[in-house]
Design a protein that fits this description.
Arc Repressor Mutant, subunit A, 9% strand, 117 residues, mainly alpha
């Protein structure tokens, strides 16, 4: 099956990534309608019980995280272009690395980046 194009599916996120963008946007809209306005899929992880207060992101990480989406990947070059007036390339690389380590951002093939859930 792998030779025919099948992919490994270990979690629901693996399935979510393969859905067309239009389908993901529609599903998110339906979820938001059911959960009420102001609710976003990203907030599901924050809604869980925690013993610790959420730590705000450093400025560089917040800027990078703010332009990323979970339903559309951005190339590294696009990220750098959008933030060239705010951050240096090394600050962007560091922010992406830290966001990846914390599980907030996922790097896809071709140096594409998306928000994680």
């Amino acid at each position: 099956m792998i030779k025919q194009g099948a992919k490994l599916v270990a979690t629901w996120e693996d399935v979510w990534e393969e859905l067309p963008t239009q389908v993901r946007v529609q599903l998110e809209a339906q979820l938001q309608a059911k959960m009420g306005t102001g609710f976003a899929i990203e907030s599901k992880a924050e809604a869980g019980a925690s013993l610790f207060e959420p730590v705000p992101l450093p400025r560089a990480e917040a800027l990078v995280f703010g332009i990323l989406r979970h339903d559309e990947a951005l190339l590294l070059d696009e990220i750098m272009e959008k933030l060239e007036s705010e951050l240096s390339s090394s600050e962007i690389f560091t922010a992406l690395f830290e966001l990846e380590l914390s599980g907030r951002v996922k790097q896809l093939p071709g140096r594409n980046y998306v928000k994680s859930f």
